[in-house]
Each structure stands twice: as C-alpha cells, then as structure tokens.
C-alpha cells in the first residue's frame, strides 16, 4: 500500500464527492481516509432481534420492527411538507415520517405488505415515530441477513438530513476497505502483540467495522482501545521524561530564613502529616535540577493554602519571586488577606492584583515587580496580562485549577526565560484514573487528611415543601451564634430566570428573617466588585448571619463560623459543585450541616447525586460517582473536555486497559527511550505519524 494512502482526502473516495465530503468534515471532522477509518461505531445492533410497538421506549435507540403501512398522508407545515405513514403491528401503531423524497416513497412503498423498518425512535405527544427509516420488505430481509452485528456510527441531525445515513456510512467504509484491500500498517511491536495476545491492526480494523462475530469484535475493541491509550500514555510519559531531562529548573537549593522563621514563630497550628509529606515532596522537586510541574490535590478544607505559602517562602529564600493565582476576585482577596495575617511582621512584600486594581496602583505594582521589590504577587487572571513582568519569578501557584484553562497555564510558562516551577492546586478531587490520563505529564501530590478536630458535615435532603422546618432550624442555629449560607443556582443558559429566582429568594428570606434581628448579605455576579467585597466582608466579620449567594462563593471562601449550607434547587447542581459548596462549612469546631433543597420531581440521576452527597463526605468517592454519571469531559469543565476526545476508549470503563497501556508505555520507554530498536519501529512510525497529524492532543504547548 502507498504509505500516504490514508492521507488521501476523503472526496477521492468513490461515492463521496464534494458535497458529502463537506458534511462529513463539518459534522464528523472527517477529512482523510484515515479519519473515516477511525470513525468507530458507537455500538452494534443485533439485527436478529425485533421490537414490538408496545415495547418501544422514548430512549432514542435504534430498533427494528416488523409491521405494515396501512395509511400514508402528506401533512402541510409552515416549513414544508412531511409525509406520514401509519405503521402497525399486532400490538399497536406508530408513525413513519419523511421530510423529503416524498414522490419516490409514495411510488415505491407498498401498503399492507410486511416490512422490516429500522431507525431511531422518537416520541411526539403520545405517538412514537421514526424519521427516515431504513425499510426492507420482510421477504427480502429474510433472504439477506448477512451481517448479524450491524455497526451503528455516530450520527447527527444534519448528517441524516443530508442523506448520510448509517447505511451510507457503512457503504463508504466498505469502499475504503475495498481500495485498501483491508491492509493497514501495524502500529505496535511484535513483543507487545505477543505478550498481550492482541489481534493485528488490520484484523482489528476490519472487525470493528464488519464484525464476524462477538468474540472477534471484543478482541478488536480491546486491541484498538489499548492502542489508543498506549499512545496517549507514551506521549504523556515521554513528555514528562523530556521535561525532567531537558527543562532546567531554577535551583532552590536552600531552606532559609523566611521558611524557618515562619515555621518556628508564625505557624498557627501543627501541620498534618499529609501536609508535611506534600511539602517534602515539593521541596525535593524544587531542589532537583528539573522544573517542577506538580498537581496538588486536596479536598476542600484540607489546608492547601499553608502549603502554598511555605513553598512561596522557599522561593524567597532562594532569591526568587512567587505568585499565587485564584480564579475569582473574592478568592484572590481572601488569599491576600489570609496570607497577610499568617505572615504577620515577617517583612514579606506582597501585593494584590485583580481586575479592579486601580490604574495608578497597577503602574506602581508593575514597577515593583520588575525591579524585584515585591516578593509575592497574589491575583486573578490579571496576573497573566503581558504587562505584568517579574524580575525573577521562581514559583507560580495556581489555586483551584479547574477554573483555569491549559492555555493560561502555558502563558505563565512564558513569563520568564527559564520557566518557573509550577504548582497547581485543586480541590476537585480527580479520580486516580482520570488524573493518570489527564495529567500523566504532571507529578501528583495528595493531601489525604483533614486537619484534626473537624466534625464531618451532616448532610440531608429536604423537599421544598418542608421549607418552614428548615427555616426554623436555621433560626435555632443562628441563635447559637452560627452563620448560614444560602446558595442559588446560576446557570449560564437560564441566567435571567435564575437571577429572578435568586432575587425572589432573597426577598422571601428577608421577610422570614426580618431586620433588625437578622442581617442578610447578598452576593452575585452582577454586582460591582466593590459591593461584592463589602457584602462579603460583612459576613466574614460576622455582621450578617445569612449569606444569600450564587455559586460565586463556591470556591475557597473561608468563614469558619458559618456552619449551615443551604443549597436551593440542589437537583440542578453537579456533584462536584455540590461537594465544593458543602466544603464552605465544616471549617470550624462546631457541628456543620448541609441541607439540599429540591422540588418533588427528580430525575434518576439527580436522585443518585443527592444520595451520594447524603452518604459520603469523601471527595474522591464523590468524584468517582461524578465521573461515572457525567463522563470525564464535564467533570473537568468544558475548557478541558477537548483533551478527552478519545475515539474508542473510555477512561472510566476501560480503567484496566488504561493501566495496562500505561505499564507497557513505561516499560517501553525504559528499555528503549528513543524508540531506536528495530522491533519498535512500527511504534515509532505510528507515533510520528500521529504527532504529524496532531492526533494526540497537546498539554502545555
Ligand atoms: P483548602 O485546602 O480548601 O484551600 P485551606 O487552606 O483554606 O483549605 O484551609 C482550611 C482551614 O483549615 C483554614 O482555616 C486553615 O487555617 C485550617 N488549617 C489548615 N491546616 C491546618 C492544620 N494543620 N491544623 C489546623 N487547621 C488547619
Ligand atoms: Mg483553598
């Protein structure tokens, strides 16, 4: 086969042509033969099984039904005509619908003859319907039945509207195999193939598209999943090795005055063992000659801030500046104030830079950064602006990293000639599985222990109908001197409505908790930063007992006296968000509570989320459930979901394969770091092809 065969532009494939090629490109991202070959079926349909109409579910699944058309009519609509056929079997009736090709269908379909129809089920009102079904006379169908396992390819509305049905995709695939004679270059080494008893690449590709039987299909899936994860791991691991070899780190050789003074005189509590362990790990990194790129995971309240501070002091001890970035202004403020308090009279020069820093202050600050008069800069995204130049930035710490995109990380990277050490802190516990594939190029530290004396937060679920009781409970807690958060959802898509909910809520709370006995703060995204801070401050100081807010308070805010978290419309929040919110309480010595308020109608998934919250406080457990419910893309936030466009493997379900792949990738790079051995040439070749085609996504670019 011509080595560039797979690079052939897709319009060259017989049966495709420019129009279809256009749709394939925009809808499925298919530009070349290779792309088409790697369009893997989502699932397979057992075309030996048939549904009855009364068994249908509005599941969006593709099904196969035997029945007859008893009636056909044209329905006029505003946006054109539609052809509707009544299709019946002995258990009921449904509709078949066509939006085009009416003439052909009217002329060719036979009334009252048994057909097998196949397509996606939808429900309109009380009727099930199937749009543009594949149809075959039962008599023909019985003669055929060549492929029992029919692949179902990803589909979009536009694809089917343009006539690129599953059947058409299958035909294209056939054509591709015809032109290539089904021969594709092997991309794994003999060793790996033999050790894992994998089927060859050509066999795997054939059976993934045209499975001969279940067993071969399973073997092919395994092989392709392994391969996909293997190359991802190969990239991640070699990147990490390269970084350690090549990227010289700024030397932090000594522990000096700042660190020691703080440790001996300013540390307000004993560090937990987990904190000590992590600081040690980081110190080892900083002392090596390589650049540190470390992810620090620790559940909310586990005490990441003090770790960050001590690392920044280390930077200063070695003559470097440090910066700490937070995703919101409130949080940056809080960090700034918290650090100031911790540092006391140590003489550390620290400044705050956020969107609302005044221009005059800013200019001064820029100067001080450049001439080295500032030791620590705390701030928001504003820190990343080009104008902000450090004299010698040695350590950059990013708090709550899931709010920052990868691009932003790489921006920090370019601030200096030599890259600063980077510490990324996250309170969204990332399941190990995911951490391995997402951050395989980072080192990971975990604070897996909460500071002593914390009482686990009690979490309950209450329906809106029990609001009075909940309010009474709040009043009792306030009487004991506690403070309360009430959080409302603010989801971008329904912002206006949500905002109204928040304001309505605020009003009714103001009625139920009247002044002067009760003081209420409110914080939301539409407020001016100064007003936000003012309200926040009042709550922090204990001047107000209730904080009504949107999720702006989700991240990091620390008010130890607040012991009750009420989450309104809790069913609308994702699990990790609920967990984050809950983490705002339980920070003091008192028993804390989290009350999840919901309406009475709950989806199954929402029920699972609520149950999980009630059952456990363990962030890692919650993250695992979340990952299962939502998939990795959502978990990490849309910014990063692009990193997870795996074609066939699933990080959650294929956890075992991932481990195997990682093991073999490590093994390979240990034995043959440059992939020079002859037996590894197929891997080298495939790998460089993938890099060329940018098939493997990059991390820090
Ligand atoms: P997070 O990991 O969520 O950022 P913080 O750093 O804000 O957590 O710490 C939460 C609270 O726990 C703070 O009030 C902090 O002062 C306190 N804290 C941190 N470490 C310890 C410790 N070792 N012992 C007691 N309290 C601690
Ligand atoms: Mg924090």
TrEMBL record:
Domain Helicase ATP-binding intervals: 285-447
CDD domains per the UniProt record, alphabetical: DEXHc_RecG, RecG_wedge_OBF
Enzyme class: isomerase
EC number: 5.6.2.4
UniProt feature coiled coil, ranges: none
Biological classification of the source: Bacteria, Pseudomonadati, Bacteroidota, Flavobacteriia, Flavobacteriales
Function per UniProt: Plays a critical role in recombination and DNA repair. Helps process Holliday junction intermediates to mature products by catalyzing branch migration. Has replication fork regression activity, unwinds stalled or blocked replication forks to make a HJ that can be resolved. Has a DNA unwinding activity characteristic of a DNA helicase with 3'-5' polarity.
Domain Helicase C-terminal per the UniProt entry, residue ranges: 469-633
Annotated protein name in UniProt: ATP-dependent DNA helicase RecG
Protein's organism: Flagellimonas nanhaiensis
GO MF entries: 3'-5' DNA helicase activity; ATP binding; ATP hydrolysis activity; DNA binding
Keyword terms: ATP-binding, DNA damage, DNA recombination, DNA repair, DNA-binding, Helicase, Hydrolase, Isomerase, Nucleotide-binding
Lineage: superkingdom: Bacteria
Reaction catalysis annotation: Couples ATP hydrolysis with the unwinding of duplex DNA by translocating in the 3'-5' direction; ATP + H2O = ADP + phosphate + H(+)
Pfam families (alphabetical): DEAD (PF00270), Helicase_C (PF00271), RecG_dom3_C (PF19833), RecG_wedge (PF17191)
One of the GO BP terms on file: DNA recombination
InterPro entries listed in its UniProt record: ATP-dep_DNA_helicase_RecG, DEAD/DEAH_box_helicase_dom, Helicase_ATP-bd, Helicase_C-like, NA-bd_OB-fold, P-loop_NTPase, RecG/Mfd, RecG_dom3_C
Family classification: Belongs to the helicase family. RecG subfamily.
């Amino acid at each position: 086969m011509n080595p560039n065969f797979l690079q052939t532009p897709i319009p060259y494939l017989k049966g495709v042509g420019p129009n279809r090629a256009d749709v394939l490109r925009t809808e499925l991202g298919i530009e070349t033969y290779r792309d088409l070959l790697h369009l893997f079926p989502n699932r397979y349909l057992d075309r030996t099984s048939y549904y009855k109409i009364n068994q249908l579910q509005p599941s969006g699944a593709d099904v196969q039904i035997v029945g007859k058309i008893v009636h056909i009519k044209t329905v006029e609509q505003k946006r054109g005509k539609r052809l509707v056929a009544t299709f019946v079997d002995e258990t009921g009736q449904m509709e078949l619908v066509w939006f085009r090709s009416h003439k052909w269908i009217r002329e060719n379909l036979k009334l009252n003859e048994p057909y097998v129809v196949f397509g996606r089920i939808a429900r309109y009102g009380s009727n099930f319907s199937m749009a543009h079904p594949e149809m075959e006379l039962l008599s023909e169908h019985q003669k055929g039945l060549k492929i029992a396992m029919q692949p179902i390819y990803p589909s979009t509305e536009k694809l089917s509207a343009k006539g690129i049905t599953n059947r058409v995709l299958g035909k294209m695939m056939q054509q591709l195999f015809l032109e290539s004679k089904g021969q594709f270059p092997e991309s794994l080494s003999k060793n790996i193939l033999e050790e894992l008893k994998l089927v060859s690449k050509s066999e795997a590709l054939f059976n993934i598209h045209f499975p001969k039987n279940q067993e071969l299909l399973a073997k092919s899936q395994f092989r392709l999943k392994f391969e996909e994860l293997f190359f991802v791991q190969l990239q991640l691991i070699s990147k990490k090795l390269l970084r350690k070899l090549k990227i010289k780190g700024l030397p932090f050789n000594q522990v000096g005055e700042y660190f020691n003074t703080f440790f001996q005189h300013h540390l307000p509590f004993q560090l937990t063992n987990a904190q000590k362990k992590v600081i040690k790990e980081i110190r080892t990194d900083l002392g090596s000659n390589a650049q540190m790129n470390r992810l620090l995971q620790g559940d909310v309240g586990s005490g990441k801030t003090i770790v960050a501070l001590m690392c920044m002091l280390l930077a200063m001890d070695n003559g470097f500046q440090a910066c700490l970035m937070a995703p919101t202004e409130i949080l940056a403020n809080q960090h700034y104030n918290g650090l100031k308090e911790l540092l006391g009279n140590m003489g550390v020069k620290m400044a705050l830079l956020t969107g609302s820093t005044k221009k005059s202050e800013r200019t001064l600050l820029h100067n001080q950064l450049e001439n080295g008069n500032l030791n620590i800069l705390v701030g928001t995204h504003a820190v990343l602006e080009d104008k902000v130049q450090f004299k010698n930035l040695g350590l950059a710490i990013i708090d709550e990293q899931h709010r920052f995109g990868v691009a932003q990380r790489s921006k920090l990277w370019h601030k200096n000639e030599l890259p600063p050490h980077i510490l990324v802190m996250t309170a969204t516990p990332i399941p190990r599985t995911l951490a391995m594939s997402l951050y395989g190029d980072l080192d990971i530290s975990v604070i897996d222990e909460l500071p002593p004396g914390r009482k686990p937060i009690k979490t309950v679920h209450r329906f809106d109908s029990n609001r009075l009781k909940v309010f009474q409970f709040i009043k009792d807690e306030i009487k004991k001197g506690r403070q309360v958060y009430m959080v409302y959802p603010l989801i971008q898509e329904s912002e206006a409505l949500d905002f109204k909910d928040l304001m309505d809520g605020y009003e009714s709370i103001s009625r139920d908790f009247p002044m002067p006995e009760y003081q209420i703060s409110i914080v939301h995204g539409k407020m001016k930063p100064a007003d936000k801070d003012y309200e926040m401050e009042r709550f922090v100081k204990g001047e107000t007992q209730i904080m009504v807010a949107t999720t702006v308070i989700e991240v990091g805010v620390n008010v130890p006296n607040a012991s009750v978290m009420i989450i309104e419309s809790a069913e609308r929040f994702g699990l990790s968000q609920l967990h984050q919110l809950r983490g705002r309480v339980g920070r003091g010595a008192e028993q804390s509570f989290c009350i999840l308020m919901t309406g009475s109608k709950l989806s199954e998934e929402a029920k699972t989320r609520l149950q999980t919250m009630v059952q456990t406080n363990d962030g890692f457990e919650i993250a695992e459930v979340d990952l299962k419910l939502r998939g990795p893309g959502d978990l990490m936030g849309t910014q990063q979901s692009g990193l997870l466009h795996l074609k066939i493997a699933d990080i959650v379900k294929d956890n075992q394969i991932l481990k195997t792949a990682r093991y073999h990738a490590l093994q390979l790079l240990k034995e043959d770091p440059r992939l020079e051995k002859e037996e590894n040439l197929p891997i080298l070749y495939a790998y460089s092809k993938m890099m060329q085609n940018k098939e493997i996504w990059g991390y820090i670019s």
